[in-house]
Structure formats: structure tokens, C-alpha cells
Amino acid sequence: MGKRRSPRLRLALAAHIGGVGAAVTDDIGFWGMRLVLDTPPPLASGDEVVVRVNLIGRFVYVLVRVVWTDCNRLGVALSAAHPADERALQAAVCNGLLERWRE
Q1: Closest by alpha carbon to 14, among 32, 31, 38?
Q2: Which residues constitute the domain of residue 30?
């Protein structure tokens, strides 16, 4: 895996992968996230899928491309999102990083 373009925030949020089912975010960044599932993901590197993330009171929908998979985890890169959803996701990451920095 190459160097990330932005920091990641360790954050567990309920998520749903279209056509796959429930997941939980393990970390989230401006350009990607890691998702954890109860079972091995039926997806492969390069697949595109829509992910819904429950971002504390609102749902954010993003189109993602699978970058890697293993036993029950999946690394994805964000391909597209509505601008309002993209801003909400970025704000959550920024706020979380600020809170951790203040600790």
C-alpha cells in the first residue's frame, strides 16, 4: 500500500455496503476508509460499490472503489459523493482529529 494522501481517524461508525450488508468503519479519511464485516467480503480489488455511513445523525452515501481485502476487512478509496456528503465526512474527520489532538 502506498502513502495516504490524508490522515485517517480511528472511528467506528455503522455502515452498509450495497449488495453486501452491514459493516462498521475502522478508520475514515478524506479519500478512503477501512470497513470491517462479520464475514469475508464478497468483493475484489477494483470493484465499485455504494457505502452508506451513519455519520452521527445523518446518512452519508459514497461511491467507493475496493483497494484491498482480507479476512473480514476491506480498504476502499472514495470515487464520488454528493458535495454535501463529502463535506460532512471531511468535517467529521477534521473534528475528530482536533479532539484527539487536544487530548
Answers
A1: 38
A2: 8-102
Query: Which amino acid, residue 33?
Result: M
Q: Tell me the HSE value of 57 on the side-chain side, using a 13 A CA sphere.
A: 2
Q: 56: domain CATH number?
A: 2.40.10.220
* DSSP at 101: H
Q: Are strands 32-36 and 48-54 parallel, antiparallel or unpaired?
A: unpaired
Residue 101: what are its φ and ψ, rounded to 5°?
-65, -35
pLDDT tens-place string over residues 12-61: 999 999 999 999 999 999 899 999 999 998 999 999 999 999 987 899 99
pLDDT over 80 at 75, yes or no:
yes
Residue 1 in any domain: the answer is: no
Total H helices, total E strands in the chain = 1, 7
Distance CA 35, CA 66 (A): 10
